[in-house]
Amino acid sequence: MILSEQEILRRNKREELMRMGIDPYPAELFDVTHTTQQLRDAFADRTGAETQGGYESHLDFANDATYGQVRLAGRLMGFRIMGNASFAEMQDSAGRLQLYFRRDDLCPGDDKTLYNTVFKKLLDIGDIIGIEGHVFTTQTGELSVYVKQFKLLTKSLRPLPVVKEVVNEKTGEKETYDAFTDPELRYRQRYVDLIVNPQVRDTFIKRSKLVNSIRQYLTDKGYLEVETPILQPIHGGAAARPFMTHHNTLDMTLYLRIANELYLKRLIVGGYDGVFEFAKDFRNEGMDRTHNPEFTQVEFYVAYKDYNWMMDTIEEMVEKVAIDVTGTTKVPVGPNVIDFKRPWKRLTMFEAIQEFTGVDVSAMDEDALRQVAESRGIKTDSSMGKSKLIDEIFGEACEPNLIQPTFITDYPVEMSPLTKKHRSKPGLVERFEAICNGKEIANAYSELNDPLDQRARFEEQLELAKRGDDEAMAMDEDFLRALEYGMPPTAGVGLGIDRLTMIMTNQPSIQEVLFFPQMRPEKKAEVSTEADFVAAGVPAEWVPAIQQLGFMTVAQLKAANPNKLFNDLGGVRKKLKMTDVPMPKVEEVKAWVE
């Protein structure tokens, strides 16, 4: 492992702490009494009094019954060393707060090692400490903690990315420079992102509020939260390509679920009036700003209801979520303000296509639909049946234009193999999708409960699969058997948690609302081995110095300027404490490069 200069320095500090008898990773608990936010809230209404002089206090609460002694723990995010007194900034899960350290208070006796050596020389930005002291305000009115004792809780061995905040003199607002902004690094190293960009935490706090709001709504309705299998012998419940795996003991193929619909409907057959599940689902498909192979949705099914009832329910539930998460029904999303207040606009699928294309596709056959699709630049192939072509036309022409919450209803029967046929419109089914900000957020049906009709629909899906449609549904004999026992009329829905969170938090990408989105394999920098460098003529003892200077491959070394390399080796020799290793001659260094 090639270490940077900072990483080497921090490891040396770790060793020095251990030599001093200080455990850089102590096991015992540290009893925290307050968070930084609790202190800020408690002192928000306290105003300044006369300055008492020095750095120590503007308002001092050393004798306060509540705040005369507080214990906090968090990560050091900055230092201002000023000789015998210093300020530091500590960040915990709730925010940041200034700390004040005074040598003679930390070290009342003759031994000043704790301050002069441990605090000033062996602590780094990123280290986690626990402190004990009392609350006060500085002359500038900044709430702070006057530290009387501190303890190192975790030594950080990697330096944090530098993030600078500067107050704009004209606007008075904070501006961030050198932030940790590279999406590739932020998503791959979310732990660093959360440390140096604490505003990112707010997105996930809102996500948690969103999930809890939905859970409360459904639980208050009397529905049962359940769990169903993630590993399934048959992939079903949606038109999507599954992930496959193999179970060794059973010697059988299993699939990561693409939906939990068919299992939840089995529970309705079993006698529950309403069930719901927050499900991790998996689809072996493309990745973009609104798709991740692993995603979360809540599905719920209620007996004796239909899709009209479900539209009213989704409106009511999502309106409640918006208020619970943002405090209002009007949510800013990019350049738009989306209003979730009921009622939402409703259009049939054919009405929407006609509105945005001027073409009535309701009576078209497959060939005519293919011509419409291709005239709009949509690529088609022989595996696409009527349902796929209509879906492609709708996705290209309509979806991006539906910004405000809109229900698209009454889909063609070919598009919805699990949906009950429309009660009054031949060739259609009782299905709706909720579209918002140009993307589907919910999909719902009056659930098909005729087992013979369901079997025929599955058989149609098998024919599509034979034509090459790898998203077609499979035949599920056990689900058909369950329907043959009788499932009451049922309304069901799947609502995407990730996409709804994107809207409620005004995030443009699904990666921003997933702690750990799926990433491509991390590219490893090419590094030559020690043997490679030795074969090129570099003595083994000088390989670490060569790598410390950034020459990670023999090819890079061969491209170096030998005179500059010779001079740089002298400097790095001191840093790496290689004083027992004699310096090579210029001629030797030239031989390494040639």
Task: Describe the structure in your own words.
- With 594 residues, the chain is an alpha+beta fold.
- Strands 9-13-14-21-20-19-18-17 form an eight-stranded mixed beta sheet, sandwiched between helices. Strands 2-3-4-6-5 form a five-stranded mixed barrel. Strands 10-12-11 form a three-stranded antiparallel beta sheet, with no helix packed on it.
- Helix 7 packs across helix 9 (307-326) and helix 8 (261-269) runs parallel beside helix 14 (477-485).
- The chain is globular.
- The two termini are 26 Å apart.
- Mean pLDDT is 92; it is low at 47-57.
What secondary-structure arrangement, pairings included, does this model have?
Elements: H1 5-19, H2 36-42, E1 59-60, E2 70-81, E3 85-92, E4 95-102, H3 103-106, H4 113-122, E5 128-137, E6 143-154, E7 164-167, E8 174-177, H5 183-188, H6 190-196, H7 199-220, E9 224-225, E10 231-232, E11 244-247, E12 252-256, H8 261-269, E13 274-282, E14 294-303, H9 307-326, E15 330-333, E16 336-339, E17 345-348, H10 349-357, H11 366-375, H12 386-397, E18 406-412, E19 428-436, E20 439-446, H13 451-466, H14 477-485, E21 490-496, H15 497-504, H16 530-535, H17 543-548, H18 554-558, H19 562-575, H20 586-593
Parallel strand pairs: 4-6, 9-13, 17-18
Antiparallel strand pairs: 1-5, 2-3, 2-5, 3-4, 5-6, 7-8, 10-12, 11-12, 13-14, 14-21, 15-16, 18-19, 19-20, 20-21
Helix pairs in contact: 7-9, 7-15, 8-14, 11-12, 13-14, 19-20
